[in-house]
Here is the input.
Amino acid sequence: MHYQPRLAWAITGSGHYIEACLDLVLSLKNVDIYISQAGEEVLKMYGIDLKTLSKTHAVYRDKARSAPPVGLFYKNYYHTFIMAPTTSNTIAKCVLGIADSLVTNLYAQAGKCRIPSIVYPCDIAPEMETTAPSGKVMVYPRKIELEATAKIRTFEYTTVVESVEALKEALDQRLDTLV
Here is the structure.
């Protein structure tokens, strides 16, 4: 069976510019969407229906204990893994090597298969503006969250971005290497 490698995109429980991230996802072809349990909750808060996403993209939900889709990385089914937006909880787990959910397992397996990951953490500065269902708000990430974000920047095969624009740029650069 011959197929064109795809992009795997994970959505966690962060609302940090979630609508702009989804606009980017939906503009792409050959992308599968992975949604954590918290990601499902956040999408509902923003009025985003999974059925709508499923009409144009394959959507995988975090329902199985063993996260069966991670095996696709070993078959070269994906060329890139993106986590955007990414909660501080998911970043902390990834930094500690904890792969106990669909999304953290995907990140771990991508790294083990030397598949590049692009990560857009929700906690990137000591003081920052973010999006909430009611509009923009200010947040003040703690030292521990900022340290985890700094740590994941050092991981092999991982590019960390700080904005949706930087996410699009990193994705475009990655896609250009595949042509």
About this structure: The CA atoms of residues 58 and 64 lie 16 Å apart. Strands lie at 6-11, 31-35, 58-61, 78-86, 117-121, 128-132, 135-139, 158-160. The helical segments are 18-26, 37-45, 50-56, 88-96, 102-112, 143-152, 164-178.
